[in-house]
Design a protein that fits this description.
The complex is a heterodimer of chains A (462) and B (305). Chain A has 19 helices and no strands. Chain A has 462 residues and is mainly alpha-helical. Chain A folds into two domains: 362 residues, Formate dehydrogenase/DMSO reductase domain (Formate dehydrogenase/DMSO reductase fold), CATH 1.20.1630; 25 residues, no CATH class. The radius of gyration of chain A is 24 Å and the shape is globular. Chain B is an alpha+beta fold. Chain B has a single domain, classed as 2-Layer Sandwich (Alpha-Beta Plaits). The chains are: A mainly alpha (462), B alpha+beta (305). Chains A and B meet through helix 4, helix 5, helix 7, helix 10 and helix 11 of A and helix 1, helix 3, helix 4, strand 6 and helix 7 of B.
C-alpha cells in the first residue's frame, strides 16, 4: 500500500475523487484502487498469508464445535466450566475495550479536545472488543441461540450475569451508534450524522454508567466462587473494583498498542493532524494509564491487607501473583514514570504492550490458571480451544484492519468545500494541505491550545 | 425467599428510581429455609459403600448405563464426582485413625439459599417449598455460571451434546417422589438406613440426638446445618468434615452474601452517575464553545448543509 501511495495512487478520503465525481461504493471498498491493484497489494502482504493458514485450520474447527458439541473442542469439564473462550476471549477482551467510554468521557464530557484525533480509534477499539467478546461467548455458550433469553424469556434479576447481559447488549448498541458517525461520513449520509450528534452526550453518559457496572460485574461474577478463586485473586469487597479499575489502564494501553501497530503498518492512512498529534496524545494516554495503574496497585494491596492474606505471598501461587503484578503493573508504572518525563516514545509504547499482556494474564489467572486451586489437578485447554481462540482473534484483527483502512478513524473526512481549494493548490501530495493554513491562523489564536487552533482553522477555512 | 426478594428489590427500585418512579421497599432479612422443607440426614458412620443408592438413582432418573457396574468396588480407588451420567456418587476416604475408612455419598446438597439459583441469569433454578432445588432445562442458555458458583461442585453439564446441552444434577426426585411426599429413591433403597428422610428441622434434632447418645461414634458437628446458609441434606460423620471431602472453609454465610456488596452498588451507580457526569460535563465545558466544539470538522460541515 505504501508503494502504491508513493507511485501517486490516491486513496479515498472524501466523497468525491479529483475530477469531482462521487466515488462509488465499490471504489470506496477497494480504497480507490482498481481491482487488480487491490488484490495485488493484498497478496503482497505476508500477514494475509499467515491469516489464510490460520483460517484454513480454524474456521472448520469453529464450525465443528457447533456440530460435534463443546466436548469436541474443549477440555471444559464439570470442575472447570470456563476455559479459554471466556478466560481469554470474554474476560480478557472486555477490559481492553474500555477505551470507548474513557475517550468518550474525556472528549465529550470533560471537553478534552486535545484528545480528539484519537477519540474515534478509542470508540472503534471499544466496539470491536465487545463485539468479539460476544463472539467468544457465542462459541462458549452451550445453547448460543438462546442468548436473548435473559432479555425476553426468563429473568433472573438477582444474578450478576443478568446485569452483564443487559449492560453489554445496551452498551454495544450505544457504541454502534457512536462509531456509526464515521460510517455515515464514509457512505455520505449527513442526516445520520446529525441525528447521532444530537444524542452524543446521552450516549456518552450511558456509556460511563454501563461500563462502570459491567466491567465491575465481570469481576463480581467471581465473588460467587469464594472457595474456588485463589484468595490472592479473590476479594469479596474489592473484586468488582479490581476489575473496573484495571480496565482503565487496560483500555488506554490497548489504544496506544493499536496506534503503535497501525503507525508501523498503515501510516499511509494517517492524516497530518493524526501524525502530528500522535506522540502528544500517547503521552496523555500514558499519564492516564499510570494513574490507573497506581490506583489499581493500591487497591490490590489493600485487598490483601483487608483480608490479611500476606501469608499466601510466600507460596508458589504467591510468586506467580508477584510475576503478574510485576509484568502488568509495577514494571510498566516505572517505565511510564521514566519515559513520560523524557518523552521516550518507544519505552512508553513498550510499557503499554506490557499492560495489555498483564491484563490478559490477570484475567486468565482469575478465571482459569489459579481457579479451583484446592483441586488436585489443573486443567490444560484442548488444542482445538487454542486454535479457535487464535482464529477468532485473527478475525478480530482482520475486521479491525478492514475498518481502519476505510472509515475516517485515522484521518478526517474531507468535504466538498475543502476539496476545491485543496485540489487547486496541490499537485501530488495532499496530506500536508492543512499545515500552512494552521501557521497562518495560529497567531490569531495564539492563546488557544493546538487543538482549538485546529478546530477554529477549519471552521474559518470553510 | 426474602433475601433474594431484597436483592431483586434493590435492582427494581434502582431502576424505578432512575426512571423517576416511586417504589415500595422490601424488608431485609436472612432466609433460613422453608419451615416445611424436607431433608435427608446422611449418617456416614453407617454407610458401607454398597453403591445401591447410585443404582437406584440411575434407575429412577433414567440415566444411561454406567461405565462401571454398580457392584464393582474398584471405583473407590479414585475420588469421583457427580457427572451427567451420575447424579450421586459414593467415595471412600482414608483416615489416619486406624479404623475402617468412611464412605460418603455425594449429591446436590439442596441449599436453603442456593448459589446456583442466585447466579442464574435466566432463573432456571427453583427452590421448592419441599426443599428441592430443581432446574428448568427449557430456559438454560448454557453459561455454566451455576457450576462456577456451586460451592460443592455438584452441577454437571452434558458437554457432549451439540444441540441441547443442559445441566444435570440431583433434583431430590422432585417430580416423581418428593412432590408426593415420598422419599427419594436413594433413601428408600439404602440397606443400612444411613439415609434418613424427614422434615429438615426434625433431622437436625435427630442428628444432635445421635451425637449426644453416642458421642464416641460421632464428631460433634452436623455438616449442612449452617454451612453456606444451611442445606436440606445434612451429614454426620466420625471424623471432621474435611476428612470426608467436605469443604470446611466455606463459612456459614450463603454464597450470595459475597456478591451483595456489588449488587448494592448497582442502583447507586445507576442513579448517581448520570447527574454526576452531566455535572462534570457542565463544569468542564462552562464558558467554552463546547457544544459544537466536540466534533470532527466534517460533522460541522455536514450539519450546515
Amino acid at each position: 500500500m505504501k508503494k502504491l501511495i508513493a507511485s501517486g495512487e490516491v486513496t479515498v478520503d472524501s466523497l468525491q475523487n479529483s475530477s469531482g465525481r462521487n466515488w462509488t461504493i465499490m471504489e470506496k471498498l477497494f480504497l480507490g484502487l482498481t481491482l487488480p491493484q487491490y488484490i495485488g497489494q493484498a497478496l503482497r502482504n505476508p500477514l494475509n498469508w499467515i491469516f489464510a493458514i490460520i483460517f484454513a485450520v480454524g474456521i472448520p474447527i469453529i464450525l465443528g464445535r457447533f456440530f460435534f458439541g463443546l466436548s469436541w473442542v474443549t477440555h471444559s469439564s464439570n470442575d472447570y466450566p470456563w476455559g479459554l473462550f471466556l478466560g481469554f476471549g470474554l474476560f480478557g477482551m472486555v477490559p481492553l475495550s474500555s477505551s470507548g467510554f474513557q475517550l468518550g468521557t474525556a472528549c465529550v464530557l470533560f471537553g478534552r479536545h486535545d484528545l480528539e484525533p484519537i477519540e474515534r480509534l478509542g470508540l472503534l477499539n471499544g466496539l470491536l472488543g465487545y463485539l468479539f467478546a460476544v463472539v467468544f461467548l457465542m462459541i462458549d455458550l452451550g445453547q448460543p441461540w438462546r442468548l436473548p433469553y435473559p432479555m425476553v424469556v426468563s429473568f433472573g434479576p438477582a444474578a450478576v450475569l443478568f446485569l452483564v447481559a443487559w449492560h453489554v447488549s445496551t452498551y454495544l448498541s450505544c457504541q454502534i451508534a457512536e462509531v456509526s458517525t464515521s460510517f455515515f461520513e464514509w457512505i455520505g449520509f449527513p442526516i445520520g450524522i446529525r441525528a447521532i450528534r444530537r444524542i452524543t452526550l446521552g450516549l456518552t453518559v450511558a456509556g460511563v454508567i454501563l461500563s462502570t457496572l459491567h466491567q465491575g460485574a465481570l469481576g463480581a461474577l467471581f465473588t460467587y466462587a469464594p472457595g474456588k478463586v485463589h484468595p490472592l485473586w479473590y476479594s469479596s469487597s474489592f473484586q468488582w473494583i479490581h476489575f473496573f479499575v484495571s480496565s482503565i489502564p487496560g483500555g488506554l494501553c490497548m489504544v496506544i498498542a493499536v496506534s503503535t501497530i497501525a503507525s508501523k503498518t498503515m501510516s499511509w492512512r494517517f492524516d497530518q493532524r493524526f501524525k502530528d498529534s500522535l506522540d502528544r496524545i500517547t503521552i496523555s494516554l500514558a499519564k492516564g494509564a499510570s494513574m490507573g495503574l497506581a490506583t489499581y496497585l493500591t487497591i490490590k494491596l489493600l485487598s490483601i491487607a483487608h483480608d490479611n492474606k500476606w501469608g499466601y505471598i510466600a507460596t508458589g501461587y504467591g510468586q506467580w501473583y508477584l510475576v503478574e503484578i510485576m509484568i502488568g503493573v509495577i514494571i510498566p508504572m516505572a517505565l511510564f514514570a521514566y519515559a513520560i518525563r523524557r518523552k521516550q516514545m518507544a519505552i512508553i509504547r513498550f510499557s503499554a504492550f506490557l499492560v495489555v499482556i498483564g491484563i490478559f494474564l490477570n484475567r486468565l489467572n482469575t478465571a482459569l490458571i489459579t481457579f479451583n486451586w484446592k483441586l488436585p489437578y489443573r486443567e490444560i485447554p484442548h488444542w482445538r480451544e487454542f486454535v479457535i481462540s487464535a482464529t477468532v482473534y485473527c478475525i478480530y484483527i482482520v475486521v479491525y484492519r478492514f475498518l481502519l483502512y476505510r472509515l475516517p478513524i485515522f484521518y478526517q473526512w474531507r468535504t466538498q468545500e475543502e476539496l476545491a481549494p485543496a485540489y487547486a493548490t496541490e499537485t501530488e501530495k495532499r496530506a500536508p494541505a492543512y499545515a500552512p493554513k494552521i501557521e497562518e491562523l495560529a497567531s490569531a489564536y495564539a492563546t488557544e491550545t493546538e487543538a482549538d487552533a485546529f478546530r477554529n482553522t477549519e471552521t474559518v477555512a470553510s | 425467599m426474602k433475601r433474594r426478594d431484597f436483592l431483586k428489590g434493590c435492582l427494581i427500585s434502582g431502576a424505578a428510581a432512575s426512571l423517576g418512579a416511586t417504589s415500595k421497599s422490601w424488608a431485609v432479612g436472612s432466609f433460613e429455609g422453608y419451615p416445611d422443607a424436607m431433608g435427608v440426614l446422611v449418617d456416614t458412620t453407617r454407610c458401607i459403600g454398597c453403591r445401591s443408592c447410585e443404582a437406584a438413582c440411575n434407575k429412577e432418573q433414567k440415566l444411561p448405563e454406567p461405565d462401571v457396574p454398580f457392584d464393582d468396588t474398584s471405583v473407590f480407588e479414585e475420588k469421583r464426582r457427580t457427572t451427567e451420567k451420575a447424579y450421586t456418587v459414593v467415595n471412600r476416604y482414608e483416615t489416619n485413625d486406624g479404623q475402617k475408612p468412611p464412605f460418603r455419598k455425594m449429591q446436590c446438597h439442596h441449599c436453603n439459599e442456593p448459589a446456583c439459583l442466585t447466579s442464574c441469569f435466566v432463573n432456571a433454578y427453583t427452590k421448592t417449598k419441599e426443599g428441592a432445588v430443581i432446574y428448568n432445562s427449557k430456559v438454560c442458555v448454557g453459561c455454566r455460571t451455576c457450576m462456577v458458583a456451586c460451592p460443592f461442585n455438584i452441577p454437571a453439564y452434558s458437554y457432549s451434546s451439540a444441540f441441547g446441552p443442559v445441566i444435570k444434577k440431583c433434583i431430590f426426585c422432585y417430580h416423581t417422589r418428593l412432590k408426593f411426599g415420598k422419599p427419594p429413591a436413594c433413601v428408600e433403597i439404602c440397606p443400612r438406613e444411613a439415609l434418613t428422610f424427614g422434615l429438615r428441622n426434625d433431622l437436625i434434632k435427630l442428628g444432635h440426638e445421635r451425637i449426644r447418645a453416642t458421642p464416641d461414634r460421632y464428631y460433634d458437628h452436623i455438616y449442612g446445618e449452617k454451612e453456606v446458609g444451611g442445606s436440606s441434606w445434612l451429614y454426620l460423620s466420625r471424623v471432621p468434615a474435611e476428612q470426608i471431602g467436605l469443604d470446611a472453609t466455606l463459612g456459614n454465610e450463603p454464597i450470595i452474601s459475597n456478591v451483595k456488596e456489588f449488587l448494592g452498588m448497582v442502583p447507586m451507580v445507576l442513579t448517581i452517575w448520570p447527574a454526576l457526569f452531566t455535572g462534570f460535563h457542565l463544569l468542564a465545558t462552562r464558558g467554552k464553545d463546547h457544544d459544537d466544539a466536540h466534533s470532527n470538522h466534517s460533522e460541522q460541515e455536514d450539519g450546515k448543509k
